[in-house]
């Protein structure tokens, strides 16, 4: 578990402007316990990039002294003097490392990037030094074996003991000294490669912009034109319109632009990120990452990285994950063929004289949606205001879990666009802080994500969580509301589901707190939270027209519901293609892989439709090459989606999407439990049985087989 893992996973605009510092920043500001109201908050107003390296070096030295003291303790190993002591260790590094990781994700400027290159391998080496310390592991081993049958320990304490022991074993603590040293060396080399991959991708996303003239905007709705004009103006191109090389800018353009040549140009720029044979090409980096992962897995006693990665996941084995993906894949590509045929018939009727290509898919899919369902998503967007959606998320969590939100003035923020709310429970008790950072900026990673700045815990006194949601929306004109697409609205609810997982946490120990669960389980609460967006209770209250204030018409809501299985062939196939390639790459062992050639050959073997790409092509697949987090784990979204659709049917069966008894059971068995027990047991406690894939297939409109 890399020290960057205290942020929990799942892009660019104007130059960054930080809040003015209130005092000269010093390393001690990053190391000191967080001060202020709400149990303290990160000192974002005192951050200086130059302080990261000395602060983190000092924090690593402090943690090393702490763990050496644990290892040298002459008392017999117990849970308290070993595992609880380890829970207390590294507090300063968690604080400094959290702020550093926030800057890496949100403000990766030229000043910060060399610091990342310097620190990442040092952090990896530091973690390896702890997890491979023979004296410390001897104590951990003894304490773990004693804990297994100790009647005085709680189930959570036994889980913490297992998690801690397992982390040592999986890091190579049982290997001979030479093998341990090589694993540590590999971890350091990987940390450097991950940083290179990220910085290459950031350069491709921030440095490649399509500037359009007014006569090139055909088909684009007014809000997209306004956002593109603002983005161009921020980049010194007044009078032009910027299509950024990020998904949040590219996808709407591909959906609505009637300029086919431009669609192709924008599509190729976006899907060739990291694959242009230049200084930012990621293929050689990927090749090295795969080789090192394969070598490390063999040293640790596993056939492949995939086997090592899934051993402590919910799926347990790569075969279980592959079986699920391949069960869904034939239905997905069959649906793509149907979708393409319908789109091609429209293009032929319009005498477009084209064959549907990847840059045509979204554009013609919207035409199909309009014809089949009389639904124009541009008619929905005026009702989807960013701020109203935020209010909707707050309201829904209040109905389900009793949460209430109020602005938290005076809490330091890392950028003027970031806002903070205090969260209280139904009894009026403080539960945590929620930060919201919705807008794109230069140096910010692409996409949307949730972070946990601080884990909830109680074992040394109550500590409340701090969570954040981050996105990359383009600001509109001053005073104008930001309108978002239906897909983006779902993403907001998704990421807020992660935040609710953290805010509901009620455990004793930080190691098993909140979202610190297995990768193929962590997406379950977030994907489940998406289901509340289309409910009448949400849309009727919060989907209000940005000009008239009128609620979204009932007939429009009915059309959205009727069209919910629309374009599922595309959505599932582009995702599953990426998940399958991820698993195949990591099941290939130490094969000499050319990433481009491997991707092409394996997609052909899968009969991948040529009319759409993988969601994340290999040279830009940040989930699996920016860290070990989702490597051989991108299947997790499908695994969790099976859970979430099955779980949603519990609310449907109760007759009310806001049924309090069902929500209480969800909170008590899943959301509050963190990783205090096996996730399969948690799910059974909620649902009364194992998950059934049939709910997922029904929701997608696929044959239930």
Give the helix proportion (percent range). 40-55%
Order of strands in the sheet with most strands: 3-4-5-7-6
Strand content: 5-15%
Rounded average pLDDT:
94
Which ranges are low-confidence, i.e. pLDDT below 50, for 5 or more consecutive residues? 1-26
Q: What separation lies between the terminal Cα atoms?
A: 38 Å
Number of helices: 28
Here the CATH topology of the domain at 3-202 equals: Neurolysin, domain 3
The second-level CATH architecture of the domain at 3-202 is: Orthogonal Bundle
Estimated structural class: alpha+beta
Rg for CA atoms: 25 Å
Sheet having the most strands: 5 strands, mixed
Key features of this structure:
705 residues, alpha+beta, Neurolysin, domain 3, 5-stranded mixed β-sheet, two-stranded antiparallel sheet, 28 helices, 54% helix, disordered N terminus
How would you characterize the overall build of this protein?
This protein is of the alpha+beta class and 705 residues long. Among the domains are: 3-202, Neurolysin, domain 3; 208-271, no CATH class; 382-562, Neurolysin, domain 3 (Orthogonal Bundle). The protein contains 28 helices and 7 strands. The chain has helices spanning 27-31, 52-72, 79-88, 91-106, 113-131, 134-147, 155-170, 177-207, 222-234, 247-256, 260-271, 283-299, 305-310, 318-349, 361-373, 377-380, 386-401, 486-503, 519-529, 536-542, 554-562, 568-587, 595-605, 622-625, 636-654, 660-671, 679-687, 694-700, and strands at residues 209-212, 241-244, 404-407, 419-424, 430-439, 449-454, 465-473. The strands form 2 sheets. A 5-stranded mixed sheet has the order 3-4-5-7-6, sandwiched between helices. Strand 4 (419-424) and strand 5 form a beta hairpin. Helix 2 packs parallel to helix 5 (113-131) and helix 2 (52-72) packs across helix 6 (134-147). Residues 1-26 have low confidence and may be disordered.
């Amino acid at each position: 578990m890399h020290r960057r893992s205290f942020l929990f996973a799942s892009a660019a605009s104007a130059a960054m402007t930080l809040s003015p510092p209130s005092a000269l920043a010093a390393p001690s500001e990053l190391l000191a316990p967080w001060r202020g109201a709400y149990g303290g908050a990160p000192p974002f107003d005192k951050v200086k990039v130059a302080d990261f390296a000395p602060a983190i070096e000092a924090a690593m030295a402090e943690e090393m002294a702490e763990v050496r003291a644990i290892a040298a303790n002459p008392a017999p190993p117990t849970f308290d003097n070993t595992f609880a002591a380890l829970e207390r260790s590294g507090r300063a590094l968690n604080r400094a490392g959290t702020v550093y990781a926030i800057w890496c994700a949100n403000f990766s400027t030229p000043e910060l990037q060399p610091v990342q290159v310097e620190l990442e391998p040092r952090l990896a080496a530091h973690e390896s030094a702890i997890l491979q310390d023979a004296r410390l592991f001897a104590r951990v081993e003894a304490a773990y074996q004693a804990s297994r049958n100790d009647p005085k320990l709680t189930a959570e304490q036994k889980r913490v003991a297992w998690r801690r022991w397992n982390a040592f074993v999986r890091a190579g603590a049982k290997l001979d000294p030479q093998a341990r040293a090589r694993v540590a060396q590999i971890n350091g080399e990987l940390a450097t490669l991950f940083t290179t991959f990220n910085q290459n991708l950031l350069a491709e996303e921030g440095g490649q912009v399509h500037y359009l003239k007014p006569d090139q905007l055909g088909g684009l709705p007014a809000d997209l034109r306004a956002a593109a004009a603002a983005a161009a103006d921020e980049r010194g191109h007044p009078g032009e319109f910027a299509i950024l090389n990020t998904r949040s800018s590219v996808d709407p353009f591909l959906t609505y632009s009637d300029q086919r040549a431009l669609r192709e140009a924008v599509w190729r720029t976006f899907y060739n990120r990291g694959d242009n044979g230049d200084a930012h090409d990621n293929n050689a980096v990927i090749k090295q990452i795969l080789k090192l992962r394969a070598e490390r897995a063999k040293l640790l006693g596993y056939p492949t990285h995939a086997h090592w990665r899934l051993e402590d996941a919910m799926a347990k084995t790569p075969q279980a994950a592959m079986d699920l993906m391949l069960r869904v894949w034939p239905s997905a590509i069959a649906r793509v063929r149907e979708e393409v045929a319908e789109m091609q018939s429209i293009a032929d009727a319009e005498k477009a004289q084209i064959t549907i290509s990847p840059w045509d898919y979204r554009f013609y899919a919207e035409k199909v949606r309009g014809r089949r369902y009389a639904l124009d998503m541009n008619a929905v967007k005026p009702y989807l205001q960013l701020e109203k959606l935020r209010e909707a998320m707050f309201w829904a969590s209040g109905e389900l879990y009793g949460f209430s939100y109020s602005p938290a003035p005076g809490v330091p923020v890392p950028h003027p666009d970031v806002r903070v709310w205090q969260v209280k429970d139904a009894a009026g008790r403080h539960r945590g802080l929620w930060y919201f950072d919705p807008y794109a900026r230069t140096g910010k990673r692409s996409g949307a994500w949730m972070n946990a700045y601080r884990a909830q815990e109680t074992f040394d006194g109550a500590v409340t969580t701090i969570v954040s949601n981050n996105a990359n929306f383009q600001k509109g004109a001053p005073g104008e509301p930001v309108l978002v697409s239906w897909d983006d609205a779902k993403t907001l609810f998704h990421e807020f589901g992660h935040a609710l997982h953290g805010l509901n946490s009620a455990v004793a120990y930080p190691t098993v707190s909140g979202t610190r669960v297995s990768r193929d389980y962590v997406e379950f609460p977030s994907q489940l939270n998406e289901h509340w967006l289309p409910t009448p209770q949400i849309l009727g209250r919060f989907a209000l027209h940005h000009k008239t204030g009128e609620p979204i018409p009932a007939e429009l809501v009915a059309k959205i519901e009727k069209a919910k299985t629309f374009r599922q062939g595309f959505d599932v196939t582009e995702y599953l293609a990426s998940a399958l390639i991820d698993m195949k790459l990591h099941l290939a062992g130490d094969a000499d892989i050319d990433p481009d050639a491997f991707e092409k050959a394996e997609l052909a073997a899968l009969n991948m439709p040529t009319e759409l790409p993988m969601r994340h092509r290999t040279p830009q697949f940040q989930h699996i090459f920016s860290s070990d987090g989702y490597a051989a784990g991108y299947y997790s979204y499908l695994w969790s989606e099976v859970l979430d659709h099955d779980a949603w049917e519990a609310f449907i069966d109760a007759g009310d999407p806001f049924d309090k008894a069902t929500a209480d059971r969800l909170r008590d068995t899943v959301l509050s439990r963190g990783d205090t027990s096996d996730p399969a047991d948690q799910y059974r406690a909620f649902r009364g049985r194992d998950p059934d894939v049939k709910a997922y297939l029904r929701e997608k409109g696929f044959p239930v087989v």
